Amino acid sequence: MPTRRRLLAAAPLALLAGCATRFYDEQQPEAARPLLQVQNPGLQPSTGEVIRVQAQDLQAGDIILSAANGATSLGIRLMTLAPVSHASLYVGSAEIAEAVGEGIRRRTLEQFLEEEATAVAFRHPGVREEHVLRMQAFVGETVGQKYNLLGVMLQAPFAIDRKLCELPLTPTLVRDFCLQGLGAFHLGLGSSDTFFCSQFVLEAYRRAGLPLTEADPRLLSPADLLHMREGDVPSVRTHQALVYVGHLKYQPLGAPIV
Protein backbone atom coordinates (compact mmCIF):
# COMPACT_ATOMS: atom_id res chain seq x y z
CA MET A 1 0.00 0.00 0.00
CA PRO A 2 1.46 3.42 -0.88
CA THR A 3 2.58 5.59 2.00
CA ARG A 4 -0.22 8.14 1.55
CA ARG A 5 -2.89 5.45 1.64
CA ARG A 6 -1.34 3.97 4.79
CA LEU A 7 -1.50 7.32 6.52
CA LEU A 8 -5.12 7.88 5.51
CA ALA A 9 -6.08 4.41 6.69
CA ALA A 10 -4.33 4.78 10.05
CA ALA A 11 -5.49 8.30 10.90
CA PRO A 12 -9.17 7.45 11.66
CA LEU A 13 -8.06 4.62 13.94
CA ALA A 14 -5.78 6.96 15.84
CA LEU A 15 -8.57 9.52 16.20
CA LEU A 16 -10.93 6.91 17.60
CA ALA A 17 -8.37 5.57 20.03
CA GLY A 18 -7.12 8.97 21.15
CA CYS A 19 -3.69 7.43 21.49
CA ALA A 20 -0.12 8.55 20.92
CA THR A 21 1.32 8.37 17.42
CA ARG A 22 4.72 8.81 15.82
CA PHE A 23 6.40 8.72 12.45
CA TYR A 24 9.20 6.30 11.77
CA ASP A 25 11.20 5.04 8.82
CA GLU A 26 10.96 1.37 7.98
CA GLN A 27 14.33 -0.23 7.51
CA GLN A 28 13.23 -2.21 4.48
CA PRO A 29 14.57 -0.53 1.29
CA GLU A 30 11.27 -0.96 -0.55
CA ALA A 31 9.35 0.95 2.09
CA ALA A 32 11.85 3.36 3.57
CA ARG A 33 9.46 6.30 3.72
CA PRO A 34 7.94 7.89 6.83
CA LEU A 35 5.02 5.87 8.18
CA LEU A 36 2.48 6.74 10.84
CA GLN A 37 2.65 4.35 13.79
CA VAL A 38 -0.12 4.20 16.41
CA GLN A 39 -0.22 2.52 19.79
CA ASN A 40 -0.90 -1.20 19.80
CA PRO A 41 -4.25 -1.52 21.64
CA GLY A 42 -3.89 -5.22 22.47
CA LEU A 43 -1.73 -7.53 24.52
CA GLN A 44 -0.37 -9.36 21.50
CA PRO A 45 3.35 -8.69 20.87
CA SER A 46 4.30 -6.92 17.66
CA THR A 47 5.16 -10.30 16.13
CA GLY A 48 1.66 -11.56 16.88
CA GLU A 49 3.06 -14.73 18.51
CA VAL A 50 1.92 -15.37 22.09
CA ILE A 51 4.51 -17.09 24.28
CA ARG A 52 3.37 -18.97 27.39
CA VAL A 53 5.75 -18.66 30.35
CA GLN A 54 5.91 -19.78 33.97
CA ALA A 55 7.65 -18.60 37.12
CA GLN A 56 10.94 -20.24 36.16
CA ASP A 57 11.04 -18.14 32.99
CA LEU A 58 10.95 -14.87 34.91
CA GLN A 59 13.83 -12.79 36.23
CA ALA A 60 13.81 -10.48 39.21
CA GLY A 61 12.90 -7.01 38.00
CA ASP A 62 10.41 -8.20 35.39
CA ILE A 63 7.25 -6.10 35.14
CA ILE A 64 3.93 -7.95 35.15
CA LEU A 65 0.88 -6.23 33.67
CA SER A 66 -2.49 -7.83 34.26
CA ALA A 67 -6.27 -7.55 34.26
CA ALA A 68 -8.74 -9.17 36.62
CA ASN A 69 -12.38 -10.09 36.46
CA GLY A 70 -14.42 -7.39 38.09
CA ALA A 71 -15.84 -3.90 37.83
CA THR A 72 -12.74 -2.09 39.13
CA SER A 73 -10.45 -3.63 36.52
CA LEU A 74 -13.02 -3.03 33.78
CA GLY A 75 -13.38 0.62 34.81
CA ILE A 76 -9.62 1.20 34.68
CA ARG A 77 -9.37 -0.45 31.27
CA LEU A 78 -12.22 1.61 29.88
CA MET A 79 -10.73 4.81 31.31
CA THR A 80 -7.27 4.15 29.87
CA LEU A 81 -8.40 2.37 26.67
CA ALA A 82 -6.05 -0.54 27.42
CA PRO A 83 -6.32 -4.29 28.09
CA VAL A 84 -4.47 -4.05 31.43
CA SER A 85 -5.44 -2.50 34.75
CA HIS A 86 -2.66 -3.46 37.18
CA ALA A 87 1.14 -3.46 37.35
CA SER A 88 3.37 -5.44 39.70
CA LEU A 89 7.07 -6.20 40.11
CA TYR A 90 8.56 -9.69 40.10
CA VAL A 91 11.15 -9.81 42.91
CA GLY A 92 12.40 -13.38 42.50
CA SER A 93 11.74 -16.62 44.40
CA ALA A 94 8.32 -16.89 42.71
CA GLU A 95 7.11 -13.73 44.47
CA ILE A 96 5.78 -10.37 43.33
CA ALA A 97 5.45 -6.99 45.02
CA GLU A 98 2.53 -4.69 44.31
CA ALA A 99 0.60 -1.66 45.48
CA VAL A 100 -3.07 -2.43 46.12
CA GLY A 101 -5.87 -0.88 48.16
CA GLU A 102 -4.60 -2.50 51.34
CA GLY A 103 -1.16 -1.03 50.80
CA ILE A 104 2.21 -2.26 49.54
CA ARG A 105 2.47 -6.02 49.82
CA ARG A 106 4.54 -8.98 48.76
CA ARG A 107 2.98 -12.35 47.91
CA THR A 108 3.55 -15.48 45.86
CA LEU A 109 3.14 -15.45 42.11
CA GLU A 110 0.70 -18.34 42.46
CA GLN A 111 -1.58 -16.32 44.75
CA PHE A 112 -1.37 -13.37 42.40
CA LEU A 113 -2.27 -15.36 39.29
CA GLU A 114 -5.28 -16.94 41.00
CA GLU A 115 -6.91 -13.50 41.05
CA GLU A 116 -5.90 -12.35 37.56
CA ALA A 117 -7.65 -13.21 34.28
CA THR A 118 -4.71 -12.18 32.12
CA ALA A 119 -1.06 -11.54 33.00
CA VAL A 120 1.89 -10.72 30.77
CA ALA A 121 5.55 -10.16 31.68
CA PHE A 122 7.98 -7.60 30.25
CA ARG A 123 11.70 -7.16 30.88
CA HIS A 124 14.13 -4.28 30.88
CA PRO A 125 17.22 -5.69 29.12
CA GLY A 126 19.54 -3.52 31.19
CA VAL A 127 18.63 -4.96 34.60
CA ARG A 128 21.70 -6.21 36.45
CA GLU A 129 22.23 -7.78 39.87
CA GLU A 130 22.91 -4.43 41.51
CA HIS A 131 19.62 -3.07 40.16
CA VAL A 132 17.74 -6.10 41.50
CA LEU A 133 19.26 -5.66 44.95
CA ARG A 134 18.17 -2.01 45.03
CA MET A 135 14.65 -2.93 43.90
CA GLN A 136 14.41 -5.59 46.58
CA ALA A 137 15.64 -3.10 49.17
CA PHE A 138 12.99 -0.62 48.04
CA VAL A 139 10.31 -3.31 48.36
CA GLY A 140 11.54 -4.17 51.84
CA GLU A 141 11.33 -0.51 52.87
CA THR A 142 7.84 0.05 51.51
CA VAL A 143 5.93 -3.18 52.32
CA GLY A 144 3.09 -2.22 54.63
CA GLN A 145 2.94 1.42 53.55
CA LYS A 146 -0.40 2.93 52.59
CA TYR A 147 -1.80 2.95 49.08
CA ASN A 148 -1.91 6.24 47.13
CA LEU A 149 -5.70 6.38 46.99
CA LEU A 150 -5.78 10.12 46.33
CA GLY A 151 -3.42 9.70 43.38
CA VAL A 152 -5.70 7.09 41.84
CA MET A 153 -8.78 9.24 42.33
CA LEU A 154 -7.05 12.18 40.65
CA GLN A 155 -6.04 9.91 37.77
CA ALA A 156 -9.66 9.68 36.55
CA PRO A 157 -10.10 13.30 35.32
CA PHE A 158 -6.47 13.39 34.20
CA ALA A 159 -6.97 10.23 32.09
CA ILE A 160 -9.76 12.01 30.22
CA ASP A 161 -8.05 15.36 29.71
CA ARG A 162 -4.74 13.82 28.68
CA LYS A 163 -6.32 12.58 25.44
CA LEU A 164 -6.02 16.18 24.22
CA CYS A 165 -2.24 15.80 24.48
CA GLU A 166 -2.31 12.57 22.48
CA LEU A 167 -4.18 13.72 19.42
CA PRO A 168 -2.80 12.13 16.25
CA LEU A 169 0.32 13.71 14.77
CA THR A 170 1.17 15.55 18.00
CA PRO A 171 5.00 15.73 18.17
CA THR A 172 6.60 13.79 21.03
CA LEU A 173 8.07 16.89 22.71
CA VAL A 174 4.74 18.71 22.55
CA ARG A 175 2.94 15.67 23.94
CA ASP A 176 5.42 15.41 26.84
CA PHE A 177 5.09 19.10 27.68
CA CYS A 178 1.29 18.89 27.51
CA LEU A 179 1.13 15.80 29.75
CA GLN A 180 3.44 17.32 32.33
CA GLY A 181 1.41 20.55 32.38
CA LEU A 182 -1.93 18.78 32.72
CA GLY A 183 -0.43 16.47 35.32
CA ALA A 184 0.73 19.41 37.43
CA PHE A 185 -2.76 20.91 37.17
CA HIS A 186 -4.61 17.71 38.12
CA LEU A 187 -2.13 16.04 40.49
CA GLY A 188 -0.08 18.92 41.84
CA LEU A 189 3.68 19.19 42.11
CA GLY A 190 6.19 17.51 44.39
CA SER A 191 6.96 13.94 45.37
CA SER A 192 4.70 11.37 47.00
CA ASP A 193 5.53 8.93 49.80
CA THR A 194 2.61 6.65 48.91
CA PHE A 195 2.15 4.66 45.72
CA PHE A 196 -0.44 3.14 43.42
CA CYS A 197 0.47 0.14 41.26
CA SER A 198 2.23 1.61 38.22
CA GLN A 199 3.72 4.41 40.30
CA PHE A 200 5.22 1.76 42.61
CA VAL A 201 6.86 -0.12 39.71
CA LEU A 202 8.26 3.07 38.17
CA GLU A 203 9.60 4.22 41.53
CA ALA A 204 11.29 0.84 42.10
CA TYR A 205 13.16 1.28 38.82
CA ARG A 206 14.06 4.86 39.67
CA ARG A 207 15.42 3.83 43.08
CA ALA A 208 17.42 1.09 41.35
CA GLY A 209 19.16 3.72 39.21
CA LEU A 210 17.45 2.52 36.05
CA PRO A 211 14.52 4.91 35.46
CA LEU A 212 12.18 3.95 32.65
CA THR A 213 11.28 7.59 31.97
CA GLU A 214 11.82 11.06 33.38
CA ALA A 215 8.05 11.64 33.51
CA ASP A 216 6.43 11.90 36.93
CA PRO A 217 5.35 8.34 37.93
CA ARG A 218 2.06 9.75 39.25
CA LEU A 219 1.07 10.59 35.68
CA LEU A 220 1.42 7.06 34.38
CA SER A 221 -0.93 4.09 34.43
CA PRO A 222 -0.45 0.38 33.66
CA ALA A 223 -1.46 1.28 30.10
CA ASP A 224 1.54 3.61 29.85
CA LEU A 225 3.85 0.80 30.96
CA LEU A 226 2.31 -1.47 28.34
CA HIS A 227 3.07 1.04 25.58
CA MET A 228 6.72 1.17 26.66
CA ARG A 229 7.21 -2.27 25.05
CA GLU A 230 9.19 -2.85 21.88
CA GLY A 231 7.31 -2.10 18.68
CA ASP A 232 4.80 0.19 20.39
CA VAL A 233 4.44 3.97 20.76
CA PRO A 234 5.10 5.15 24.34
CA SER A 235 2.91 7.91 25.73
CA VAL A 236 5.99 9.61 27.20
CA ARG A 237 9.63 9.55 26.24
CA THR A 238 11.37 6.44 27.56
CA HIS A 239 15.00 5.46 28.03
CA GLN A 240 14.62 1.82 27.02
CA ALA A 241 11.86 -0.22 25.40
CA LEU A 242 10.62 -3.17 27.43
CA VAL A 243 11.04 -6.65 25.96
CA TYR A 244 8.08 -9.03 25.82
CA VAL A 245 8.82 -12.11 27.95
CA GLY A 246 5.51 -13.92 27.62
CA HIS A 247 2.04 -14.51 29.00
CA LEU A 248 1.65 -16.06 32.44
CA LYS A 249 -2.09 -16.23 31.82
CA TYR A 250 -3.67 -15.66 28.45
CA GLN A 251 -7.17 -14.65 27.43
CA PRO A 252 -7.65 -15.52 23.73
CA LEU A 253 -8.67 -12.76 21.35
CA GLY A 254 -12.43 -12.34 21.39
CA ALA A 255 -12.90 -13.76 24.89
CA PRO A 256 -14.17 -10.87 27.05
CA ILE A 257 -12.56 -9.89 30.35
CA VAL A 258 -15.43 -8.77 32.57
UniProtKB/TrEMBL annotation:
It comes from Ramlibacter monticola. The keyword Hydrolase applies. Residues 1-22 form the signal peptide. SUPFAM superfamilies: Cysteine proteinases. Gene3D superfamilies: endopeptidase domain like (from Nostoc punctiforme) (3.90.1720.10). PROSITE patterns: PROKAR_LIPOPROTEIN. Transmembrane segments: none annotated. Keywords: Hydrolase, Signal. One of its GO terms (molecular function) is hydrolase activity. This is Distant relative of cell wall-associated hydrolase. The keyword Signal applies. InterPro entries: Papain-like_cys_pep_sf.
